[in-house]
Amino acid sequence: MAESAPVLSALARHIDISCVHAFHGERDIRELASTAREGGFVSAHVLPSWVPLMRELLDGSDTLVGAPAGFPSGGSMTATKIFEAQLLLAVGVQELDVVVNIGRLRSRDYAYVTAELTELVALVDGVVPLRAILEVGYLDDDQVRAGCDCVVKAGVPWVKTGTGWSGRPTERRHVEIIAECVAGRAAIKAAGGIRDLDTVRDMIALGVTRFGMNATVARQLVAEARTLAGDT
After folding, report:
1. Which runs of consecutive H residues, i.e. helices, occur in the chain?
2. To bridge 210 with a disulfide, which of 119, 136, 189, 193 should be the other Cys (CB 3.0-4.6 Å)?
3. What's this model's pTM, rounded to 2 decimal places?
4. Better-predicted residue by pLDDT, 5 or 85
C-alpha cells in the first residue's frame, strides 16, 4: 500500500478538474480554466470541441488540458475513436482518456476490447498520457478484472475507474480489485462520486495517484488537506 502523506501534501497536483457534461458552455469552460490556474490543479478536462479554447486559456500555466474519446458510452466504432483521438492530438490535447467499449466488455468480447485499446496505444505512442476508462459502475467484479486484463495486455499505461456520467460512484472495492489486478503494471486514476478526504486517503493507500473531480469538490478537499497538513 502507498503512503498517503506525499500525495495529500500536494493534492492539487494529483487532481483533474473537469467540465465534461453536455450542458457545459463557454462560461463554464472559462471558469474551469480560472479555477485550474488559481488552484494549481494538474489538469483540466473538457469535451473535445473545447480543447482549442482551453489550450488558449491555460497557455503559460502548469495545468495540462485533457479530453476524452469515445465519451461517455464507449460504444462508437474503433475507427471513430481513432479519428477522434487523432483530431484531439492535432489540436494539442495533453492528456487523453478513452472509454472502453463497455458493451463489448460485458459481452466477454475481450479480444475486441484489447484490439481497440492496442490501436489507440499505437496511435498515441507515449506522446501524451493515455487512460482507459472502465466505467466500473456498469461492471461486476469479474468484469472489472477482465477490463483490467484488457488494459494491461494492450499496453495502456493508466486505468481510470469511471466517467462521472453513470451516476454510480467509484467505491473502495473497485479500486481494490483494480489494484490487485494490474499489480503495478498500470497506474490508477479514480473518478466518479469521490467526495471526501477519507475516501481519497483510502484510495491513495491502495495505489491511486490521480483523481478526477468537479471543481467545487476538488477545491474543498485541497483546502481540507492543507488544513490537515498544518495541524500535524
Report:
1. 5-9, 26-39, 51-57, 78-90, 102-106, 110-124, 141-154, 172-182, 197-205, 215-231
2. 189
3. 0.93
4. 85
> Is the distance from CB of 130 to CB of 94 less than 8 angstroms?
no
Q: From CA 189, how far away is CA 136, in angstroms rounded?
A: 12
Separation between Cα atoms, residue 175 and residue 160, nearest integer Å: 10
Domains of the chain are 5-231 (3.20.20.70)
Catalytic residue selected from 16, 59, 97, 196:
97
Is 189 annotated as catalytic? yes
35 is written with which cell numbers? 479555477
Catalytic residue among 160, 196, 198, 202: 160
Instruction: Find, among 140, 66, 151, the residue nearest to 101 by Cα.
Output: 151
Q: How far is Cα 227 from Cα 232, in angstroms, rounded to an integer? A: 9
Contacts for 161 with CB less than 8 Å, ≥ 6 apart:
133, 134, 135, 136, 170, 174, 175, 178, 188, 189, 190, 191, 192
Rounded distance, CA 161 to CA 65, Å?
19
Predicted confidence (pLDDT) per residue in 123-176, tens digit = 999 999 999 999 999 999 999 999 999 999 999 999 999 998 887 889 999 999
Which listed residue (62, 153, 189, 231) is catalytic?
189
Handedness of CA 104, 108, 112, 113 (dihedral sign): positive
Confirm whether 153 is a catalytic residue: no
pLDDT tens digit sequence for 19-47: 999 999 999 999 999 999 999 999 999 99
As a whole number of angstroms, the distance between CA 168 and CA 134 comes to 12
Per DSSP, the three-state class of 96 is strand
